[in-house]
Amino acid sequence: MSNALAATGAELLFGMTNDAQFSLGGIFTAVLADAVTFRPPIGAGAVCRYLERPRGYRLIRSYRDRSRSNLKAIAAMIERFGALLAAIGPLFSAMDLDPVIAGPSGTLAVDALFISPRNP
Length: 120
Description:
alpha+beta; D-amino Acid Aminotransferase, Chain A, domain 1; 6-stranded antiparallel β-sheet; 34% helix; globular
């Protein structure tokens, strides 16, 4: 992945808190409370159905001058993150990939935060 991808895609947030649910949101998650929550692990097919639920879905698919994000790449990344959460999620009080940039050629996790229960 490249910086060009990071500059041109839709901004998403993948996160988990100690309630063992996975949230999918984006740049408007905090402001509009526009997110999807589900329990990992989850398959790519189910992810695609969940991706259609938030109001911000139009930004992923394409809107005005924005390119269409690669839904298969988003679903694959969420599937892998869900498997990671299922395997090691109980060791952490929170895990976030924020932002994840989703563009036409793939996805890129720009930053990650893993918080241990002893370091809230």
